Amino acid sequence: MGKLVLLHKADSIYDDEPDVVYDFTKAYLMAIQTAIDDWIVYYEPVKAGPRGYFAVAKIAQVIPKPGVEGRYLALIEPGSFLPFGRSMPRLHKGRAVESALAAPDGSLKKGGLVQLAVRRLPKLEVM
């Protein structure tokens, strides 16, 4: 099981098309490979726009990015991209939606995991 949150910005320098392909570095290869044939959640960071969590999709395959050393493409299963009816912010009533991003008081942690482009979701958060 490899449920993940993938960060996506509309003005990204990467060749991302959320309904087709996700462009990423080697640092995230192992995590994304665990999500082949599984669902991911797209997240737009606060500084990039208002959407928060905005869609799900299923990763069909991971391939090296042609002509670019150390980069990979996660190919999205055709027809699996499902935008949410409304976006969901990463905070609900002042508390982080993802438990891994929550400080002991429930507020959002600073730096670290919060800034990763690919994050694993704990099993209990995907059931």
The count of strands amounts to: 9
Low-confidence stretches: none
Q: Kindly state the mean pLDDT as a whole number?
A: 81
Tell me the distance between the termini. Answer: 11 Å
Round the Cα radius of gyration to an integer and report it.
Answer: 14 Å
What is the SS-derived class? mainly beta
Brief account:
The protein has 127 residues and is mostly beta strands. The chain is built from 1 helix and 9 strands, in the order E-E-H-E-E-E-E-E-E-E.
List the helices and strands and how they pair.
Elements: E1 4-7, E2 21-25, H1 29-33, E3 39-44, E4 52-64, E5 71-76, E6 82-88, E7 91-92, E8 95-96, E9 118-120
Parallel strand pairs: 1-3
Antiparallel strand pairs: 1-9, 2-5, 3-4, 4-5, 4-6, 7-8
Polypeptide structure, described:
The protein has one helix at residues 29-33; strands at 4-7, 21-25, 39-44, 52-64, 71-76, 82-88, 91-92, 95-96, 118-120. It has 127 residues and is mostly beta strands. It starts with a strand and ends in a 7-residue tail after the last strand.
